[in-house]
Amino acid sequence: MILARKARELEVYSQVVPHNVTKEQLSALEPEGIVISGSPDPLVCPDVSDLIERGILDLGIPVVCVNCKAPGVPSIHYVPGSYEWEQAFSEFLFSVCSCRKDWTVQGFIERSIKEIKSLIGDGRAISGLSGGVDSSVASRLVQEAIGDRLTCIFVDTGLLRKGEPDDVRRIFGEGFKMNLKMVDARERFLTALKGITDPEEKRKIIGGEFINVFQDEAAKLRDEAGFLVQGTLYSDVLESQAHAGTGGSRVKSHHNVGGLPETVQFELVEPLRYLFKDEVRAIGRELGIPHHILDRHPFPGPGLGVRIVGEINEESLEIAREANAIVEEEIRRAGLYNELWQAFAVVLDIRSVGVSSGMRTYERPVVVRVVTGHDGMTCDWAKLPYEVMEKISSRITHEVKGVNRVVYDITPKPPGTIEWE
User: Which residue in 79, 137, 179, 376 has a CA-CA distance of 20 to 30 Å to 403?
Assistant: First the structure.
């Protein structure tokens, strides 16, 4: 993964293949060079004898070992930030392999649009547009290729951030002139979640209802649209390869996405399939997507449903929406947003005694959760300036009806998770 990123930083396209790739599969990719990757830990070194036995080294393609050794193959040692390493890797790419510097944002967009046009032809496609980074960029790329023959479906679950449906309508419907279908499913989700307090059950209901809503809308368009756009990223592909030990392809035919039943079949269009997250953001900027969409913190699939402890109802959703908006506003105002992994508020299903205008109150507390990290796998709680914490607390207790106390979560991950449910 690190080596693939390094090559792309040098504007050379690179692709990760599993250790058990066959000679024929590798040859079909027509690589200009092969990098066999080991580990920076000298005690962890891959056995490359099987590569030799399978004839991988006999393809007539330049090969280098990084942090490993093979008979007759040059090797270099990867040291993060080392100039000597960068120079040696660049020498292999450009002098030995004669690679071209053609992995650029504009170059990718042009190639992607050409591929999408070739795949879809005169057909039509649908896309599940959530307003997140991946679905937004994927939808914009396909729109560039086929115009209004793309229909984007946005499902308002009622579990979204404050103003998000209006934001999507304004940016993508009005701004980009997308063929956008807004589906108001708020009442449907609230009804399904009524009386449910178990976190896992809530997650399953939210996921199941979303699939059902999207299925209903997709079925209406099935006779018109034969293609489904999905914002699959390279990290998703690599994770699948790691589990299955197999490679991937750009388009998977008749693949059921997100649990869609087999009766609703589409051919997948995955224009971001070989992009990392930062590359997706760069593509989005070139396509004119606003920075507040591209640079937004991760937002859970179940939405505010995992930021409400206990039953999800209109009262708790209103508190969660307002409190989350305040946290984000103050973090941005302090210039800290891009330094943090996530910043949000959690609504608890308890009451605490407070005082307002000299009168006793018995209302809900809100937990503010702000973490730092790089990938979400491990995180630490953010040491926010006291004045920022004070401003957040003051605004929430004064502006959000039904809240009289704000507490700050100082638990790292592990042992805690980032979200509360």
Answer: 376
Tokens read off for 295 = 């640079």
Joined tokens for residue 388: 């920022």
**In this predicted model, what pLDDT tens digit does every residue of 98-141 receive, in sequence order?**
999 989 999 999 999 999 999 999 999 999 998 889 999 999 99
How far, in Å, CA of 180 to CA of 17, rounded? 37
Give the pair of three-digit tokens for residue 50: 């099987």
Count of CA atoms in the C-beta half-sphere (13 A) of 195: 2
- How is residue 193 written in tokens? 């979640």
**Residue 106: how many other CB atoms lie within 10 Å:** 9
- CA atoms of 320 and 148, how far apart (whole Å): 36
pLDDT for 242 equals 53
C-alpha span between 132 and 310 (Å, rounded): 26
Provide the token pair at 409. Answer: 């979560």
Rounded CA-CA distance 340/371 in Å is: 6
Q: Which residues contact 399 (CB under 8 A, 6 or more apart)?
A: 322, 326
> Span 395-399, mean pLDDT?
97
Contact assessment for residue 361 and residue 355, using Cβ atoms and an 8 Å cutoff: yes
Q: Provide mean pLDDT across the span 324-337.
A: 97
The pTM (predicted TM-score) of the whole model is: 0.79
Distances (CA, A) of 411 to 364, 368, 369, 375: 21, 11, 9, 17
Mean pLDDT, to the nearest integer, of 345-351?
97
